[in-house]
Amino acid sequence: MADKKKTRGLGRGLSALMADVTDDQVQNDVDASQRADIYVPIEKIVPNPDQPRREFTQDQLDDLANSIREKGVIQPLIVRKRDENTFEIVAGERRWRASQMAQLHKLPVIVREYDDTEVLEIAIIENIQRADLNPVEEAMGYRQLMDKFGHTQERLSEALGKSRSHIANLMRLLQLPDDVQDMLKRGDLTAGHARALITTENASELAKKVLKGALSVRQTEALVKKSVSPTPEPRPKQVKVKKDADTVALEGDLSANLGMKVEVDHKVGGESGQLTIQYTSLDDLDELCRILSANR
Questions:
Q1: Diameter over CA atoms, the chain
Q2: Helix, strand or coil for residue 112?
Q3: Residue of 88, 93, 137, 138 marked active site
Q4: How far is Cα 287 from Cα 258, in angstroms, rounded to an integer?
Q5: How far apart are CA 101 and CA 109, in angstroms?
Q6: 3-class SS at 106?
Q7: Which three-class secondary structure state does DSSP give residue 62?
Q8: Can you tell me the distance from the alpha carbon of 267 to that of 295, in angstroms, rounded to the nearest whole number?
Q9: Taking the domain 13-114, which CATH number applies?
Q10: Rounded to an integer, what distance in angstroms lies between the CA atom of residue 92 and that of residue 45?
């Protein structure tokens, strides 16, 4: 019988990064050489080809390069040895890029032994913790952690200090068309605007209207609602069949257990029907998804 696949934790992840530079090691205005394992020629340092962060803001790189020219690289890069003459970046690609702009010849590094899985996991977690990450990049980071390492939203919430609803709401942004995601990456749309567009099939068209009209999030929600729910044609009234006592009792039990309104419409004389669950917030929807996925 094949062994069951064990669920991994977050590995060494962020805790490994934090352990590399502890409070005991760091003093105010301490020189980087006191913390670095070695100094390495910058041409012998190469980026991680699987680095999940693909976009680096030029203005921020310029600011960091100016700081490096004035004060040097305060925090060493974390690297692993790739071969006898080359070191691969585990954490610190922005510092490496800015140091090239500042024309530094050597960089302080901390050398660690990580396998490919740990390198990717640490890179993703480090990027997620960055304050300047755009919503799409952050969502893609969560998706990578879940797809590659089997982490659940609850596990990520606990480990990264983010609420489960925050993680779930961001990951929904990945349902948007690529052009709308690009608007979000550039900052043309806010996450609030983008979330309002998720439920519509013509998100690209509506996003252009939002930009052209400089609509607020509330106005965007109204625009989406109008496009999704046009004025319906009047339908003939249907005679409502009175439900039997057992069905009413079942509705009451399900509603009490879920904390949401549940309706059961059973076809008279048949064995089929329809069960409807009404949720009033995204948190309710998250909870419902969690319950339905629990026994998979």
A1: 83
A2: coil
A3: 93
A4: 9
A5: 18
A6: strand
A7: helix
A8: 28
A9: 3.90.1530.30
A10: 11
Question: Active-site residue 113, yes or no?
Answer: no
Q: Give the residue extent of every domain in the chain.
A: 13-114
pLDDT tens for 95-111 read 999 999 999 999 999 99
Structure-token pair, residue 203: 């998100």
Out of 121-130, 133-142, 226-235, 284-293, least confident range: 226-235
Secondary element (H or E) of residue 217: helix 217-228
Residue indicated by tokens 């399900």: 254
Going by C-alpha positions, the residue among 93, 15, 12, 20 that lies closest to residue 52 is 93
Residue 212 is encoded by which pair of tokens?
Answer: 């052209």
What digits encode the pLDDT tens for the residues 43-99? 999 988 766 565 677 888 888 899 999 988 888 988 998 888 899 998 888 899 999
Residue type, 13: G
Residue with tokens 């013509």: 202
- Cβ proximity of 223 and 211 under 8 Å: no
The torsion angles phi and psi of 87, rounded to 5 degrees, stand at -120, 135
- Report the candidate in 289, 260, 290 with the shortest Cα–Cα distance to residue 275: 260
User: Model's pTM, two decimal places?
Assistant: 0.51
